[in-house]
Design goal:
With about 190 residues, the chain is of the alpha/beta class. About 40% of the residues lie in helices and about 15% in strands. It has a 6-stranded mixed sheet, sandwiched between helices.
């Protein structure tokens, strides 16, 4: 990882800006991947497996994400994966607005450090922060250009969260089809 991403990571690991670190989370999960990644994946928050390992998307949803990446010709080493919040919310509940706000500066710094061509928004919470007012059921699999953190023409690609396809098998093929668009989309950017 780059020195800048390492410095951000170290600050996240020591973070105590919100109460998540006091509500059962055992460690921060800063994110990981290539410091040269053209694609950044942003999810909601760490789950229990992520909290235990300190790595993003390593539980069942993460294994599904890894398989989908491989099906598109990518690997976890090619991309950068992180979450909106950096500590696990208790009982895997949705992150609260104040928790998202507390973690936001870290995510902004990660995006600025990477300058990704494409930001894949995994689920409604990530999408809601970057593309407010949209519904994931209406815009999944559609690239959206919007003013971003480091670019006035940032390309976002909202998709269902991998966990949603595990709980709702009807979404599985939809998510796979959306993910298969990523290499084609990247070539167009």
């Amino acid at each position: 990882m780059s020195d800048l991403l390492d410095a951000i990571r170290e600050r996240i690991l020591k973070c105590r800006l919100c109460r998540l670190c006091e509500l059962g989370a055992t460690r921060a999960v800063p994110g990981e991947g290539s410091d040269k990644a053209e694609i950044m994946f942003i999810g909601e928050g760490p789950g229990s497996a992520e909290d235990a390992q300190g790595k993003p998307f390593v539980g069942a949803a993460g294994k599904f994400l890894t398989r989908m990446l491989e099906e598109t010709g990518l690997s976890r080493d090619d991309v950068f994966i992180t979450n909106i919040v950096k500590h696990r919310p208790p009982e895997n509940r949705d992150p609260l607005p104040e928790e998202i706000e507390a973690c936001w500066p870290y995510l902004e710094e990660q995006v600025k450090a990477l300058k990704p061509k494409l930001i894949v928004l995994l689920g409604r919470h990530a999408m809601g922060r970057f593309l407010p007012g949209l519904k994931i059921s209406e815009v999944h699999g559609q690239a959206k250009r919007s003013k971003g953190i480091w670019s006035d023409k940032q390309v976002y690609f909202p998709v269902y969260h991998p966990a949603s396809a595990l709980y709702n098998p009807g979404l599985r093929q939809t998510l796979i089809n959306d993910m298969k668009k990523i290499p084609i989309l990247l070539k167009k950017i």
